[in-house]
């Protein structure tokens, strides 16, 4: 089945963001009156200029900060008491320097008290999926920036979260590595069917990855446009050089320009 369609048949959104505003103690209104539903299995990018509240919104979805006003619910998450699983990938890979790649990936399972053997088997399988077979015993200092980010993604996905939240994960990487990680991320998404929320400044990256781009403006942070990228998956090098890709990049660029000048 195509990742464009949800498998569960559950019409409820996975995450429902209703009238969410966030004002910090210093008076800054980081986001104002955001209303968004995120569907199960959907790939959404939050695109906008610096300071438009993308990270603040992502962190609130993760429960790392409370809205000042409004609600974030998980109607489609299922499980007891609406229990939901999420993975978070930061711009910095945030690996423990004293632990191996495998040691870093098994951490979330150790926190869940999974038996060590099972955790290591799952961790090693996840490292293989992100292209790091053979590097299980390597320490972060022995890995390139792209490889460290792969470890970070493996750590976020190893517990099979319903949603993967990513805050400009590839911004610090060179373009070739970034393209490769974009491709591999899409491969993981197509196989594992998690919802993805991807924060980026890049029109090109957001169009390449997403089914949907939420364009935000700053001061105060707010949603300006909600764009559906009607291009099929799988997306690959052919798509990257296609007229279709250029077309969607142009549309997203225009929306971003409008948001910046708003
Ligand atoms: N803890 C905080 N206390 C006060 N103001 C904050 C805090 N965190 C963020 N802000 C402010 O809220 C606004 C939104 O910040 P946020 O980091 O969410 O934006 P962003 O779109 O992710 O920016 P960037 O792309 O530069 O990371 C900014 O004006 C920022 O300075």
From TrEMBL:
Q: Which UniProt keywords apply?
A: ATP-binding, Nucleotide-binding, Transport
UniProt KW Chaperone keyword: no
Q: Fetch the CDD domains from UniProt.
A: ABC_NrtD_SsuB_transporters
Point out the coiled-coil segments of this chain. none
Cross-referenced InterPro entries: AAA+_ATPase, ABC_transporter-like_ATP-bd, ABC_transporter-like_CS, ABC_transporter_ATP-bind, P-loop_NTPase
Q: Name one Pfam family in it.
A: ABC_tran
Outline the extent of the ABC transporter domain.
15-243
The family classification in the record reads: Belongs to the ABC transporter superfamily.
Q: What is this protein called?
A: ABC transporter ATP-binding protein
